Amino acid sequence: MTKLDHLGVAVHDWRVSRDWYVNHLGLTVEFEVAERGVVGLLDSAGLTLILHQSAPPPGPAPFTIYFQVDDVEATYRALSANGITFVHGPKKVDWGYGAELLDPNGYRIGLWDEVSMKAKGEG
C-alpha cells in the first residue's frame, strides 16, 4: 500500500501561514518546532501539511493544493464574507468544479466537494 502522508512546502512566515490554514481551512496543529520555523498541520483525513519557513520558489507555484470541503458554494460564501479574495468562485474548470484562492505565500488552493463535482464538473 502507498499512501500520501505528509506534504512539505516552503513559506515566508510559518506563523502567518499556520494561522491562515487553521482559521480559514480548519486544519489543526499537529506539531510545532518554533526554533526551526516548522509546523505540521493535520487535515481531517490524516494528511499532514508541513510548513517550513524558507523562501518559496520565485514566480507562481508549479502546483495546486486541493482541499475537499463539505459544500464548496457555502465555503466560498463564508470565506468571502471573512475577506478572503478568490482567484475565482465556484465554477466549471478543467479539473472539474470548484473555487480557487491563494494562500499568504501565493500557493494556489483549490476547493471542491463531491456533490458539486458529480453534478457540475463532469462532461
Structural summary, described in words:
With 123 residues, this protein is α/β, with parallel strands linked by helices. It folds into two domains: 1-56, 2,3-Dihydroxybiphenyl 1,2-Dioxygenase, domain 1; 57-123, 2,3-Dihydroxybiphenyl 1,2-Dioxygenase, domain 1. 24% of the residues lie in helices and 39% in strands. The chain has helices at 14-25, 72-81, 114-121, and strands at 6-11, 28-33, 38-42, 48-53, 64-68, 86-93, 96-102, 108-112. The strands form two sheets. It has a four-stranded mixed β-sheet with strand order 1-4-3-2, covered by helices on one side. A four-stranded mixed β-sheet has the order 5-8-7-6. A hairpin with a 2-residue loop joins strand 6 and strand 7. The mean pLDDT is 93.
Order of secondary-structure elements: EHEEEEHEEEH
Number of domains: 2
Low-confidence stretches: none
Number of helical segments with 4 or more residues = 3
Q: What is the CATH class designation of the largest domain?
A: Alpha Beta
Please give the order of strands in the largest beta sheet.
Answer: 1-4-3-2
Overall CATH architecture of the largest domain: Roll
Shape: globular
> Structural class, judged by helices and strands?
alpha/beta
Major sheet attributes: 4 strands, mixed
Average pLDDT figure: 93
CATH superfamily of the largest domain: 2,3-Dihydroxybiphenyl 1,2-Dioxygenase, domain 1
Distance linking N and C termini? 31 Å
Radius of gyration: 15 Å
Q: Strand content of the residues, in percent?
A: 35-45%
In short:
The protein has 123 residues and is α/β, with parallel strands linked by helices. 24% of the residues lie in helices and 39% in strands. The strands form 2 sheets. The chain has a 4-stranded mixed β-sheet, covered by helices on one side.
